[in-house]
Design goal:
Elements lengths: L4 H26 L5 H23 L8 H24 L2 H8 L2 H13 L5 H17 L9 H24 L5 H22 L8 H23 L4 H6 L4 H13 L5 H17 L12
Helix pairs in contact: 1-9, 1-11, 2-3, 2-8, 2-9, 3-4, 3-7, 3-8, 4-7, 4-11, 5-7, 6-12, 8-9
Length: 289
């Protein structure tokens, strides 16, 4: 009988991509006035509360076994998150998202180098197809993107790739909820001093947008972590390409960002790469844990 685990993991990763795209909408909206460190702090507080409740309900110890690697994962993820949040305030939503999605190829290479994971024929086609889509979406109409925004998005992509490699490795011994807990445990003390230096009190609906950042990030992290420990790194991260067309759609609907023909074609190619990344029979060897 066909093992349903890889396909469930794929669905979890696609749901994570949708959640992260909605998180980006919240960040871009509230980031017009609220400093990035304060947005990261809000995300950390919501995530910490949700993780604590879920860990207690599951009866799990929160501290894990490989604490140094857990802290490193949290540190990499926290800095990557700050870079991504900052890039979202400087770039169009689709552009910021698509630049971040240079990380799947980096993750696939890192997974091959450090974890010994292979890359099948479908992924060999999906990766360049996704890259072509990335290049098309990175050519928006009008003025060139902010150089600082581009650098921040690229830094976020590189750090995200390293964080995902650590998640995949930690999944061998640590429950997904413990891995997720170390994210806010690390980002909270990192962001708190920065907020204290330049506090801005949220007003009106900004509170709801900040809660949305934390909620959608947590939902995305749950789907992402659950999927990453059940699929090899290359197909798991390639599925994240689905966030790009979501971002293009939200940018058009919420922020009146033009959806150029090149952007639409790039999104179509990225969606095709995502479909190619869905687990085939040979991917069913991905370990369930």
């Amino acid at each position: 009988m066909t093992d349903p685990q890889p396909r469930r993991a794929a669905l979890a990763l696609l749901a994570a991509a949708l959640s992260f795209s909605l998180m980006a909408v919240c960040v871009k909206t509230v980031g017009r006035r609220i400093p990035v460190a304060e947005v990261v702090l809000a995300r950390s507080l919501v995530s910490l509360a949700l993780c604590a409740v879920l860990l207690r309900a599951a009866g799990l110890s929160p501290w894990g076994q490989r604490r140094r690697l857990l802290v490193l994962r949290g540190l990499l993820g926290s800095i990557a998150l700050a870079c991504v949040f900052a890039a979202l305030t400087l770039l169009p939503l689709a552009t910021a998202t698509v630049l971040q999605y240079l990380y799947p190829t980096l993750s696939a290479v890192a997974g091959w180098h450090w974890l010994g994971e292979g890359v099948g024929r479908r992924l060999l086609l999906a990766i360049p197809l996704g890259w072509l889509g990335v290049l098309l979406v990175c050519a928006p109409p009008g003025a060139a993107p902010s150089p600082l925004g581009v650098l921040l998005a690229l830094a976020g992509a590189g750090l995200t790739a390293l964080a995902y490699v650590s998640v995949r490795e930690l999944g061998r011994t640590e429950p997904a909820l413990v891995i997720m807990l170390y994210f806010p445990l690390t980002s909270l003390p990192l962001s708190l001093p920065l907020v204290a230096l330049d506090p801005v009190l949220p007003q009106g609906t900004e509170w709801l947008w900040l809660i949305g950042v934390g909620l959608f990030t947590q939902l995305g992290q749950m789907g992402l972590t659950w999927g990453l420990v059940r699929l090899p790194l290359a197909p798991a991260t390639a599925l994240g390409y689905a966030q790009v067309p979501f971002a293009a759609l939200w940018g058009w609907l919420w922020f009146d960002e033009a959806l150029a023909p090149a952007t639409a074609l790039g999104a179509a190619l990225i969606l095709s790469a995502t479909l190619l990344s869905l687990p085939a029979s040979k991917l069913q060897s991905g370990r369930a844990s």
